[in-house]
Amino acid sequence: MNWTTYFIVLALLVGFIVMRRSGQVPRKKALALIKEGGIIIDVRTATEYTSRHLSQAVNIPLDEVEMLVPERVKKKDRVLLLHCQSGMRSRTAKARLERLGYTQVYNLGSFERAFKLVSGRSL
Fold it and tell me: pTM of the full predicted structure?
């Protein structure tokens, strides 16, 4: 490979990482919100949740977020911390909840990141 190919591959990799992390709540703020009692919502499917999950998390799959969150969380200013497998579904769920009027919605990102934040350990 030549330098141009290396540069393109590196740029794509950096772009992927930035896209994946965009919109995620910074680590320090996430820790404070968790400590203050924010509700952790796992938006993965029930099967994914059953395979492994955070003990503090409630499972509300992405396709049920718009129906179940308003039933379970009446206060629209309650802190909601969302995560999924990679951070993409939680980003989508965040946007949906904000459209419903929730004002304190944060994307924790991936299950792995959420696990590290909550437990202080790696998977």
Answer: 0.82
